[in-house]
Amino acid sequence: MKTPLSILSFTCLFCLCASVFSAEVAPVLDGKSCEPPKYPKAALMNEEQGTVALLFLVSPDGKVTDSKVDKSSGSKSLDKAALQAFSLCKFKPGTKDGKPDQLWAKVEFVWKLE
């Protein structure tokens, strides 16, 4: 049985649209909404450096509702300072199925002495 071309076209178009809207888009940090982390004094004195990867659960209105360290910088004080500072930031909410939703965002911060 042959399927009319117009039905195939509609089916393919529907599949394409469904796959676009079923994707999740992660929240994005609004860097202008908060202050960058400040180097803890003890970390400065010990010349600690490193990159910390943080995870933030962001609500549909862009506020952080939960946070955790995904990968440590190697310094608890640097990790804590970054987590506290970025928890105060606002995020552009993530989307699921094309609508704002509560999703996790990953933020990496590099601590480097100059």
TrEMBL record:
Instruction: Cite the entry's keywords alphabetically.
Output: Cell inner membrane, Cell membrane, Membrane, Protein transport, Signal, Transmembrane, Transmembrane helix, Transport
The highest taxon in the source lineage is Bacteria
Q: Which residues form a coiled coil?
A: none
Provide GO CC annotations from the record: plasma membrane
Q: Could you tell me where this protein is found in the cell?
A: Cell inner membrane
Q: How is it placed in the membrane, per its record? A: Single-pass membrane protein
Gene3D superfamilies from the UniProt entry: 3.30.1150.10
Q: What is its main location?
A: membrane
Q: Which InterPro entries match?
A: TonB-dependent_transducer, TonB/TolA_C, TonB_C
What is a single Pfam family found in this protein's UniProt entry? TonB_C
Signal peptide coordinates: 1-23
Record GO biological process: protein transport; transmembrane transport
Task: Identify the residues that the record assigns to the TonB C-terminal domain, covering every copy.
Answer: 24-114
User: What does the sequence similarity comment in the record state about its family?
Assistant: Belongs to the TonB family.
The protein here is known as Energy transducer TonB
Name its species.
Sapientia aquatica
